Amino acid sequence: MKAAPFDHVAPASLEQALALLAERRDDAKIIAGGQSLVPMLALRLASPALLIDLNRIASLSGIRVLESGELSIGATTRQRMVERSDLVARANPLLAAAMPSISHVQIRNRGSIGGSLAHADPAAELPAVCLACDATLVAQSRLGQREITAADFFRGMFETALAADEILIAIRYPAWPAGRRSAFIEVARRHGDFAICGIAATVDAGADGRVRDARIVAFGVADRPVRLESAERALAGSRFDPHGGEAALAVAINSAARAATDGLDPRSDHHASSEYRLELAEVLTRRALTHALQGRVA
Amino acid sequence: MMEPRDIELRVNGEQRRGRCEPRVTLVDFLRETLGLTGTHIGCEHGVCGACTVLLDGHSVRSCLMFAVQAEGADITTVEGLAPPGKMNDLQRAFQSHHALQCGFCTPGLLATAQALLRDTPDPTEDEVRHAISGNICRCTGYQPIIVAILDTARGRLAGRK
């Protein structure tokens, strides 16, 4: 349970880190919070010759709202800082709601937002929130900067669009539209464990009071977070305004929940069977939409 | 084998130095290099919480970071909660409520509870349960631990009035 020998460098600037990564791309690993990487090193699932540590690069940490209204979070910002940020609570309630479900406080105190995204665990919360919000992930290499949409970023289990010489430096969440409703919900064996299945959802209404755009993202049920497009379609056009439309909305939520499992083929493992995950996808979709649209627990 | 590095950091209020390879975790450095064996090593991959210490005031798992990363940091371990041979109020509450049996998880739970009570001086029982969810105890069934933490909070609040 001891990591194999490696060398460790903690550059003071992003330029130094990028130059080093370009040179050592074949045998180096980036470390930020290390809360996923260090266990992998301990179990020797990874044994890089060099760790390039981003923790001394102050410019990579911080939370701010840009003039465009976007919420921008530096990649090495600690998860706990995101969780406790008033700015995040106002600028992206879905992200704020997801944070307490990420592991335990000791992990969030050290773990970074960018590290979780670059690690791309299919059962992780932060990738699902990025997909539900249409976030942009900003990657930098020595050659320049590249913006990657969340839909393009997550490629598979522990697999992202980051090239070997790129570092994820920031995440930008689009401005939160007025009137947007959202919900985050997951089921795990114990609080803090990886989710067996979870749902992150946002719902926007048009001027006519009907659902214009719904984004329902499931995680833990595929090799990456996935949008439940059939469920989104089932909800589209239903009346948002509960006055006089409560029963119709409940019908729409139910049909969305039934459509949630379309196209899903989750794995069975020692945490849960495929069938149980499908059942959860349906039930949690119903609960998430009920919470988001009717403001109560299903 | 990599060339060992010199590491300088503050532990329990004292400036300390030591040398170790980059792959040595903070908990191994505390125990093996600095001789502070109060912090325990359980799972060594971030699951059990036994090795929880305070890093610049925040609870972290000392098996999930390397000693080289703690250069310049301020660490508090269980040895730093009270002067040698003494216990602080939280430790006394653990003792009087039988919040430990084998004691293996206790240093980690104390560090976690210490951080909780600093950030949340008057926690609800539910908040305490959530706060210690990352610390595994196989003896007590947790109930006495929760009682001890709540009792400490009450004592501190009463003392402040």
Report on this structure.
- The complex is a heterodimer of chains A (298) and B (161).
- Chain A has 298 residues and is an alpha+beta fold.
- Chain A has three domains: 7-53, Uridine Diphospho-n-acetylenolpyruvylglucosamine Reductase, domain 2 (2-Layer Sandwich), CATH 3.30.43.10; 58-173, Uridine Diphospho-n-acetylenolpyruvylglucosamine Reductase, domain 3 (2-Layer Sandwich), CATH 3.30.465.10; 181-294, Enolase-like, domain 1, CATH 3.30.390.50.
- Chain A has helices at 14-23, 37-42, 79-83, 86-91, 93-98, 105-110, 113-119, 125-133, 150-153, 229-235, 246-259, 274-294; strands at residues 7-9, 28-31, 50-53, 63-65, 71-74, 136-141, 144-149, 154-156, 159-160, 167-173, 181-187, 197-205, 211-219, 226-227.
- In chain A, strand 6 and strand 7 (144-149) form a beta hairpin.
- Chain A starts with 6 loop residues before the first strand and ends with a helix.
- In chain A, 50% of the residues are buried.
- Chain B has 161 residues and is an alpha+beta fold.
- Chain B has two domains: 5-80, Ubiquitin-like (UB roll) (Roll); 89-160, DNA polymerase, domain 1, CATH 1.10.150.
- Chain B has helices at residues 26-33, 89-96, 106-119, 125-131, 143-160; strands spanning 5-11, 14-20, 52-55, 58-61, 74-76.
- Chain B starts with a strand and ends with a helix.
- The interface between A and B is medium-sized, with 31 and 30 residues.
In short:
Chain A has helices at residues 14-23, 37-42, 79-83, 86-91, 93-98, 105-110, 113-119, 125-133, 150-153, 229-235, 246-259, 274-294; strands spanning 7-9, 28-31, 50-53, 63-65, 71-74, 136-141, 144-149, 154-156, 159-160, 167-173, 181-187, 197-205, 211-219, 226-227. Chain A contains 12 helices and 14 strands. In chain A, helix 11 packs antiparallel against helix 12 (274-294).
